[in-house]
Amino acid sequence: MSSEARGVAWRISAFFAAFFLVPGVHLPFWSVWLESRGLNATEIAIVMSSAILLRLVAGPAAAHLVDRSSARRQAIILLAWGSVAVFTAYWWAEGFWPIFLLGLLHGILWSPITPLTENIALLSAARFGVQYGRMRLWGSVSFLVAAYLSGLWLKGRPDDWILALLFAGTFVMACCSHLLPDIRLPLDRPKLGAPARLLLRSRLFLAFLGANACLQATHAMFYTFGTLHWRGAGLSDAQIGFLWAEGVLAEVILFAAGQRVALKVGGAGLLLLACAGGVLRWGLTGVVEDFPALVVLNLLHAATFGCAHLGAMRLMAEGVDPDVSATAQSLYTAANSAMLALATLAIGPVFAAIGGLAYVTMLPLSLAGGACAWLLWRRRNRLRFA
User: How many domains does the chain have?
Assistant: First the structure.
């Protein structure tokens, strides 16, 4: 690998590490902060699902502008500093409506960052020969460390420390956004909406979107109420932080070995593994409350999230032309966000009624994702989206 390629890999890895500091705190503990501000389970679900739904518009809109301008790095920098401003404003937010409106703004600013960063990573992999999984795993390592250490730090401290940690992580992420390489492609100024129309006319691409949207949406209960459920079962914040972290550790190992795994089973095969892992994980998580058993069960995060994400990135790299890659990445993120938002919105009243047994409602989503993945598996030797 050339020195230029190593430099690019290091810079992208550093941004992934900085970026995932925020979800490392946000996913396990944001619902706890919302509850501390007086929001009930249904209001928490509305706040979190509404922010996710905005990705349907914000992500594709930003990506289309990027495909027309090629200014990937510049867009991420602007969005990152805008996110810092939102977390600053949260300090003065009290009650449902101010928090809800700030959540909407946060969704608009935050949602395009992920697909644009993934797009830079995939384009860099193609241009410089660096491995996507080796760069992305540093994001998972960062998530692991943030989830575990924040759980230890928050033990016995006021819930406002959750917001302080999120502000600090977002500030670090915004600073590191300036490290990203400025990857540009030759521009032919496609007509407004043309890349999206091209992709959405492909039945295989629609199956790809359906598979990943369903598989990622199976995490709705876990992301939204996992921490509250475990607190109710008597687990400490340190134990909860460990569970979040060790699941991601399994994901890190998968990303490190992902190239070999993907070569054996292919992108569609990874999606099928995610389906199988989801059936087992969500069928048991709601009824298992013993900490050692949860430690073992939570390792399936490598399948439910890791296999699904790695499979999607491999299919994207192989099946999409570079000149529409940002739009394809954003449509992937938007579809995932739409299904996750709907599942999150639906799970609030269900969790309020039956508690941890709500995990069982994730099983149909796993099976639906597996059905779409099977269609891709059948066409795995001639899989081309656009």
Answer: 1
> On the CB side of 30, how many CA atoms lie within 13 Å of its CA?
22
Cα pseudo-dihedral 64, 307, 216, 48, rounded to 10: -80
For the stretch 34-49, pLDDT in tens is 999 999 988 998 998 8
Q: Which residue is it, tokens 């917001």?
A: 163
**Whole-angstrom distance, CA of residue 296 vs CA of residue 298:** 6
Closest to 123 measured CA to CA, from 286, 9, 18: 9
Q: Which amino acid is present at 154?
A: L
Measured distance CA(204)–CA(210) in Å, rounded: 10
**In terms of Cα–Cα distance, which of 144, 125, 149 is closest to 252?**
144
Token pair 């384009």 is found at: 123
Residue 238 counted as domain residue: yes
CA separation for the pair 269, 380 (Å, rounded) = 9
Q: Which range of residues forms the domain containing residue 329?
A: 3-177+195-382
The owner of tokens 């069982």 is 360
Mean pLDDT for 69-75 is: 84
Domain containing residue 341: CATH number: 1.20.1250.20
Q: Is residue 331 part of a domain?
A: yes
Q: Which of 151-165, 270-284, 302-316, 326-340 reaches the highest mean pLDDT?
A: 270-284
Averaged pLDDT of the chain: 89
Structure tokens given for 253 = 């190992």
The more confident residue out of 323 and 75 is: 75
Burial of 315 (0-12, 13-18, 19+ CB in 10 A): buried
Q: Note the Cα 249 to chain centre separation in Å.
A: 16
Crossing angle of helices 96-110 and 72-89, in 10° steps, is: 170
The residue type found at 110 is: W
Determine, yes or no, domain membership for 297.
yes
Residue 184 within a domain: no
CB atoms within 10 A of CB 296: 12
With the C-alpha atoms ordered 268, 301, 159, 169, is the resulting torsion angle positive or negative?
Answer: negative
